[in-house]
Amino acid sequence: MLESRLDGIEPILTGTKPPKNRAIGYKYLLFEVSLEKGGESYTANYLRGFEKEYILHSIIGHGFCEELGDSFPEFNIPKRWPNNPRDDRRQIRDLVFEQDGLKLVVSGIGGGKYDLNNGSIIIHGKSEGFGPIPDNYVDKLRDLLEQLIQKPAFEGYQVAIN
To answer: Which domains does the chain show, CATH number per domain?
Structure first.
């Protein structure tokens, strides 16, 4: 039942074609969404940053907030991912919402940059605002990237995580 609440949110968004090659690298973020109600729980991961040419991680976070707001209108999900009040260069990691026994936790797991080079998606670096992808999430990132290269815009690409 909880899983169906996330049906409208795609695990990976892509455009119709990959971004143009660029030397500075585009940004991506990994998110985790958890739902809990009455002892039941469900968690899913989402990869954003491959649908457009993002140069700021914060913009990706804002877009994900808007996606969630559309799927969960009963919660007051902000239109922008909040900054950490102690350090405005970093974002809050977890957004927690509760209503009528349903708990929604949205986590900005981490992110970095990617380059497109000779048919490869090269993942590197870390997000200043969200931090790097933690070691215990690398396999989840790899699984989502494997799904990404099955999409028409990235079909035939290889993935390298540095």
So the answer is: 3-161 (3.50.20.20)
Cα(153)–Cα(112) distance, rounded to whole angstroms?
A: 20
Query: What pairing do the DSSP bridges indicate for beta strands 158-161 and 120-124?
Result: parallel
Helices (H), the chain: 57-71, 138-148
Can you give the pLDDT of all 162 residues of the chain as single tens digits? 788 888 889 999 888 787 776 656 899 999 999 999 999 999 999 999 999 889 889 999 999 999 999 899 999 999 999 988 887 778 889 999 999 999 999 999 999 999 888 888 999 999 999 999 999 999 999 999 999 999 998 999 999 998
DSSP state of 17: S
Alpha carbons 159 and 23: distance in angstroms, whole number: 17
Distance CA 41, CA 65 (A): 21
Q: What is the rounded end-to-end Cα distance, in angstroms, of the chain?
A: 38
